[in-house]
Amino acid sequence: MTAAASWDLDPNVTHLNHGSFGAAPRRVLEAQNEWRRTLESNPMAFFSRRLYAELDAARDRLASFIGADPATLVFVPNASSGVNAVLRSLSFAAGDEILVTNHGYGAASNAAAYVAERSGATLVTAEIPMPVTGPGEVVRAIAASISPNTKLAVVDHITSATGLVWPIASIVELLAARSVPALVDGAHAPGMVDLDVASIGAAFYTGNCHKWMCAPKGAAFLVTAPEYAADLVPTVVGWGRTSVPPGKTQYHAHFDWVGTDDPTPYLSIPAAIDTIAALSPDGWPGIRRHNHELVLEGAAIAAAALRVSPASPESMTGSMAVVPLPPAPPGAPLEPDPLQLWLATEAHIEVSVTRGPDPVDRWLRLSAHAYNGVADYERLAEALGVYVREVDPSAHR
Q1: Which of 18, 41, 222, 340 is placed for a possible disulfide with 82 were both Cys, Cβ 3.0 to 4.6 Å?
Q2: pLDDT band for position 116 (50/70/90)?
Q3: What stretches of 104-181 adopt beta strand conformation (E)?
């Protein structure tokens, strides 16, 4: 299955990096443009008398898709905003510990470090090796890093740099048994896995809709357990602090109106859910299955070209997989990675080269979505062969 005609992606480029920014299909962008036309035809009527009801309708569709109670869900522009809203709302003091992992997304770890520095708390990092042998290794490493002073754990559902699906329900259960609330960074999870946020049971769960769900950029959510909702405010505090519309909770009021902004990414989420589902006879389960099987095949093709083995266990693979590259030389810049830049400019292939958890580790991170096919990874393998023969023979490990 390939549905490339549904996107406006440049046909002269091989797109294997959906994981970084996503890509919205044409039909979704048309739905967003229709919302924009409606808004701009009478901004006063839309913002003053219609917006809250439309947000509620979109919230209901999204909540059903991700397995959440609409009462616990608010919209945020991206998962980083969700992480910051939680970290900046909670109180920490000297002696408290905030737990992160060495696989964590850099922006989320930066936010945790910033809050720890300002409050006098300590940032503790759970060290999880890579390659990972299996889900149990992740759980054990996190368990070993919890102390009586741990006040919050920031953990990934699907890691960004290493592309691994973590056993998030087991991690949250472990943390709850130690009375540690979990802030789950689920940036990649919606659309990639069959998500049921309520069953995970985290105190806080944030995820992006612009990645694997293919909604427009600026569409994400934060789900908060009821016992924490009263303490949560967005990073921009607006009218919701003192003005709660009829039928709204203050939690919703805080996040639904943070000032004049473009709400059309949120309102286009239902169109994204329907559009992607229609690309497979089996709907979303078919899309997820296609992406999973294709990225495993693609990783094997790329790994063979580099004479290595993929580093992603099948049981921990969703729609991304990583292939090991030679370590980065001391002092080498994170961006632009020479291989990533060469592939983009010389071979017209967009793919991600990531780092971590050790700073010298380098990974060729591949993505798969409905617009991809096996031929895309064969083109990548051919380009990798040229690169190691003519540009950098050390790319063979």
Answers
A1: 222
A2: very high
A3: 122-126, 150-156
